[in-house]
Design a protein that fits this description.
Elements: H1 8-47, E1 57-58, E2 73-91, E3 94-105, E4 110-119, E5 134-143, H2 168-171, E6 182-185, H3 213-251, H4 261-273, H5 275-287
Parallel strand pairs: 1-2, 4-6
Antiparallel strand pairs: 2-3, 2-5, 3-4, 5-6
Helix pairs in contact: 1-3
Length: 302
């Protein structure tokens, strides 16, 4: 009954099933592994000590910023130069802006320093001036922001002296010197009362270290791939069952075979010819006395 599985058509179907099911299982297992890795990273980040409590190190020793160095206290010495305001930043459920000053170091590169946060509008609020002369700052190290960072303004159109994103790619177009691909936020108000009105901006956790939406997306993809594998197997069994039932019905005579061409021609021949008598009668009727071209005496009608 199942000899049809050896036909060329079923060889193609079987090959597709044999390849599709392992592929779906492999992809589902891979997505599950990605979910477990994100969960493990989140657990390790929660168990790890607060980066801000670790000993401060020179800025150059902590670069480039990664998940390990993000939040670590970094020390840099230089002189404050240009200053920018970063509007649309929220702190303690209030809207305000960051005060960002560029600290030019001895190397010539500038380190963006978030000196604090002020409530209100960046256009109407008076901003405390940055300290003059050479200063040494210790701030929590942060990676440059991108379009996925919280509070970033990518629409543009900001007034002069304001930026929507704290990143080297943005600042390097506004100042005539190089900028570090990182920034620091001061954990305390500046000494001397210069920035006493500003609130310190807490360091943010590095991107990808938390159990975010991507982890649950991996879990959803895991379920989808295993569902695909089950669907392929279900459809294969359904096709096999339908084909086997068709073969069984033919073997039991439940499905009549279609007549051949010779049988069809033989059965339709008598109806078309009606035998030799019918042909003679047709000839007699066509040439007989009842023909409209002859009268009763078989004399042609003039």
């Amino acid at each position: 009954m199942y000899r049809f599985l050896l036909t060329p058509r079923w060889w193609g179907i079987n090959l597709f099933v044999v390849l599709a099911i392992p592929f779906c299982v492999f992809m589902g297992t891979w997505q599950l592994g990605r979910f477990e890795d994100r969960v493990q990273s989140h657990e390790q980040a929660e168990k790890a000590p607060d980066p801000s409590t670790r000993a401060a190190k020179p800025l150059d020793e902590l670069l480039p910023v990664d998940k390990v160095t993000s939040g670590r206290p970094a020390v840099a010495t230089g002189t404050y130069a240009d200053q920018f305001l970063v509007p649309g930043r929220e702190l303690d459920d209030r809207q305000g802006f960051y005060v960002l000053s560029l600290l030019r170091t001895d190397s010539g590169k500038a380190l963006p320093v978030v000196r604090g946060w002020l409530p209100g509008s960046a256009s109407d609020t008076r901003v405390p001036a940055a300290p003059e002369g050479e200063v040494t700052v210790t701030g929590d190290l942060q990676a440059s922001e991108n379009t996925n960072s919280d509070g970033v303004n990518v629409r543009g159109g900001l007034p002069e002296g304001q930026i929507g994103m704290i990143s080297a790619a943005t600042l390097v177009n506004l100042v005539p010197y190089d900028v570090y691909d990182a920034w620091v936020t001061l954990p305390e108000a500046e000494a001397g009362g210069t920035g006493g009105a500003m609130k310190p901006v807490p360091a943010a956790a590095p991107q990808g270290s938390g159990l975010d939406l991507k982890a649950f997306q991996n879990l959803g993809y895991t379920g989808e791939w295993f569902v695909f594998a089950g669907f392929v197997l279900f459809m294969w069994f359904r096709l096999v069952r339908r084909e086997a039932e068709a073969v069984r019905d033919i073997a039991l005579g439940l499905v009549p075979e279609e007549p051949t061409t010779e049988e069809t021609a033989t059965s339709s021949a008598p109806e078309a010819s009606n035998g030799p008598e019918g042909s003679a009668a047709a000839d007699d009727g066509r040439d007989g006395p009842s023909s409209p071209d002859y009268d009763v005496a078989s004399t042609p009608v003039r």
